[in-house]
Specification:
Double Stranded RNA Binding Domain, Nucleotidyltransferase, domain 5, 2 domains, five-stranded mixed beta sheet
Length: 250
Amino acid sequence: MKIQIHTGHNIEGHEALATHFTGVVEESLSQFGDRLTNVDVHLSDENSDKKDGHDNMRCMIEARLTGHQPLAASHQAETLDHAVDGAAEKLAHVIEHTLGRLEHEASHRTDPPLSQMNTKIGLWIDQNKATIVTVTEQGEKISEILADAEKQLQRTGDSPLKGSYEALQVPADYSRQKVLTAELNTYYDEIIRYIRDASSILIVGPGVAKHELQKRLEKNHIGAKIVGVETVDNLTEPQLVAMIRQHFAN
């Protein structure tokens, strides 16, 4: 596990902080061992111009999990020590949740591979969730995948730390966009693992998520299976199933 410390321009003593917090983060995440490759720690003073401000110090930690997209969490506190401790504890919860979900899915996957069926998939997607309709000779099956950020924000009160996980509550600079991009890539890759063996894929949705998923499918050399990308507002599940059934019936 390689750990890198990044400090804002208003944080003094980079070398000493890097040595100290490298040890803190390494100890906090040691339980995951070789499953983590790179860890980036970003430290900043959010209100350096306000001497009497509270909870000025913010830490955002991004970790790369082997075989998975980066995961991230942040915490703001009165001191850097508390900020780093809080962010590391939240990230540990996020990693545990992600590993648990992946192991649960692997152990409970009893359906035959999609590649063994004449399977067509239509899905409605935005940046919070994807509703997937799998069409086979046996009928339709509906599944739902939530973005990790959405799931983490719902998980309040299960940590000794106050408040919810702050995977998206990061400074309004490049760090915020970096965390959001990592969360969305994780979300899109989870969808791709589910649909990659389908023979045909129809993608619909109201915003940019459908095009971002399309680009990621193309990057994974699955773009040839896409039969359409359409702008569609919110639909009920019966409406979505009917629309997808009609599309593939033509």
